[in-house]
Amino acid sequence: MKQRIFSGAQPTGRLHLGNYLGALKNWVALQDEYDSIFCIVNLHALTLPQDPKTLRQKTLDLARVYLAAGVDPEKATIFIQSDVAAHAELTWVLACIARMGELERMTQFKDKAKGSAERAGVGLFSYPVLMASDILLYQTNLVPVGQDQKQHLELTRDLAERFNRDFGETFTIPEVYIPKAGARIKSLQDPTKKMSKSDENEAGAIFLDDDADTIAKKIKRAVTDSGTEITFDETRPAIHNLLTIYQLVTGKSEQECVENFSGKGYGQFKSELAEAVVEYLRPFQERISAYDDDALNAILKTGAEKARSIASV
Ligand code: ATP
Ligand code: LTN
């Protein structure tokens, strides 16, 4: 029997290169080897204010992104979280064994609540419990995510272990899968922050639907560090980030990347990087219009049926 992977993304905002390199790219790479389930987590999106009509559209658009990125509906199950009622049901049960203290420690909650727990929604607080339900419902072995989700995975494991201890062996304890490179792509405008959908400064992120001109402009304006060498040096986070992006989109080794730019300046580096990113995203951008709403809805319906049958066992 194949081991199972489960992962998901929120249908909020436009996906960026960080989401792609940190998560989606690995889903596609793993789908042959694993029994794969990829979810569009629209209930998680409700933890912050959403317009219902827009959310419905974004949910469908995100399914399109999964497919264009190379998730194959013949191999993997793709479905919308709210189509499977068991996610919300298990969330209640797990909420009864989760502790306030452990949820208060979640850095994503602290960030998104912007320092005011008093005014934050209860949904935002229990967000990681819903995520734990997503994963545990399917007896998941491995969860491919970016670095920012590691803490949520640790909580998921803790809840599963607690449940198994108190009520008998029920849940598989999942492992986290975080890629060696690309787990935390940084903002082009501030390499101390991660590239994010919710950043007010759009220049910090390369969105998957940005055109070639926009990509070139954003990379040209990306901040750099002092010094001139183009190397993987952790003390120069801006160049480290740009070079990591170059490495991932070209598939070259670290050494090949460094050799390629030895003796070249930032200008040359940035123009080669922009070209490589545009080429990398081209097939994705060509495929994004290949699925009309009817085709998508059919795939999601089949996915929901499969997910429901696994979740109900
Ligand atoms: P954002 O922080 O950009 O608003 P999010 O946390 O709302 O994104 P989702 O769309 O739900 O993210 O995340 C999908 C996946 O992308 C997750 O596995 C997450 O870890 C990963 N991811 C998000 N940002 C980055 C990044 N900058 N670098 C690498 N992986 C990332
Ligand atoms: N919280 C995740 C999205 C998410 C997820 C999951 C990822 C929700 N449920 C289950 C992996 C497995 C995020 O990236 N914002």
Walk me through the topology.
Blueprint: E1 4-9, H1 17-30, E2 35-40, H2 42-45, H3 52-69, E3 77-80, H4 86-95, H5 100-104, H6 107-112, H7 122-136, E4 142-144, H8 150-167, E5 175-177, H9 212-221, H10 237-250, H11 254-261, H12 266-287, H13 293-311
Parallel strand pairs: 1-2, 2-3, 4-5
Helix pairs in contact: 3-12, 4-7, 7-8, 9-12, 10-12
Could you explain how this protein is built, in words?
There is one protein chain. With 313 residues, this protein is mainly alpha-helical. The chain is built from 13 helices and 5 strands. It has helices at 17-30, 42-45, 52-69, 86-95, 100-104, 107-112, 122-136, 150-167, 212-221, 237-250, 254-261, 266-287, 293-311; strands at 4-9, 35-40, 77-80, 142-144, 175-177. A 3-stranded parallel sheet has the order 1-2-3. A two-stranded parallel ribbon has the order 4-5. The chain is globular, with a radius of gyration of 20 Å. The chain starts with a strand and ends with a helix. 40% of the residues are buried. The model has no long low-confidence stretch (mean pLDDT 96).
Class of secondary structure makeup: mainly alpha
Strand content: 5-15%
Question: Radius of gyration from the CA trace?
Answer: 20 Å
Low-confidence stretches: none
Helical coverage, percent range: 40-55%
Say how many strands there are.
5
Main beta-sheet annotation: 3 strands, parallel
Overall 3D shape: globular
End-to-end separation in angstroms reads 17 Å
Spatial arrangement of strands, main beta sheet: 1-2-3
User: Helix segment count?
Assistant: 13
Mean pLDDT: 96
What ions, cofactors and ligands are bound?
Answer: adenosine-5'-triphosphate, L-tryptophanamide
- H and E order: EHEHHEHHHHEHEHHHHH
